[in-house]
């Protein structure tokens, strides 16, 4: 299975970079992982709603250009469906059984995802009703995908 993570914004913190590298290494046993890091738009402190929409649109266009047509797209969105780790593993396994060999997870920038990206998504996944920094979300996502593969493989994982 191929897993692509399309994300907006660079990781600046060394500890997050190290965690992402660690989970990327661990995932290499289970899948082909590709992380596509896209530039984020600068958001003025007092941006109007129209400016925020324009920023999300620009970021969304970049995201959509980096999603392959054959990918099953899972957008991380606060309004998405919450799943347990086991349910995410089951979903990934079922998608694989049904012939979906390429999963693309999408993480938006600080303003979230543009409506066109959400429309392209085959599934909207929420990790919480809380808002997380997109840099931290990348680490959490990789950990959960790794945990999902361990669950699918019947290997021990921390409950």
Please name the defining characteristics of this protein.
159 residues; alpha/beta; Alpha/beta knot; five-stranded parallel β-sheet; 5 helices; 5 strands; globular
Biggest sheet, open or closed, and with what strands and sense? 5 strands, parallel
Distance between the termini: 24 Å
**How many separate domains make up the residues?**
1
Shape: globular
Structural class: alpha/beta
Total DSSP E strands? 5
CATH class: Alpha Beta
Overall mean confidence score, pLDDT: 95
CATH architecture: 3-Layer(aba) Sandwich
**Element-by-element helix/strand order:** EHEHEHEHEH
Give the DSSP E fraction (strand runs of 2 or more residues): 15-25%
Rg, alpha carbons: 15 Å
Return residue spans where pLDDT drops below 50 for at least 5 consecutive residues: none
The side-by-side strand order for the widest beta sheet comes to 2-1-4-3-5
- Report the CATH superfamily: SPOUT methyltransferase, trefoil knot domain
CATH topology: Alpha/beta knot
Count of discrete alpha- or pi-helical segments spanning 4 or more residues = 5
Kindly state the percentage of residues in helix: 40-55%
């Amino acid at each position: 299975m191929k897993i692509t993570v399309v994300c907006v914004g660079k990781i600046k913190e060394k500890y997050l970079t190290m965690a992402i590298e660690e989970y990327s290494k661990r995932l290499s046993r289970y899948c082909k992982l590709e992380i596509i890091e896209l530039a984020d738009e600068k958001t003025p402190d007092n941006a109007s709603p129209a400016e925020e929409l324009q920023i999300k649109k620009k970021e969304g266009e970049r995201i959509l250009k980096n999603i392959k047509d054959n990918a099953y797209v899972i957008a991380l969105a606060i309004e998405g469906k919450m799943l347990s780790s086991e349910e995410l593993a089951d979903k990934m396994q079922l998608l694989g059984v049904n012939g979906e060999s390429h999963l693309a997870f999408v993480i938006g920038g600080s303003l979230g995802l543009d409506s066109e990206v959400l429309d392209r998504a085959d599934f909207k996944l929420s990790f919480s009703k809380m808002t997380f920094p997109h840099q931290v979300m990348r680490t959490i996502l990789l950990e959960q995908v790794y945990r999902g593969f361990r669950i699918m493989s019947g290997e021990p994982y921390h409950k």
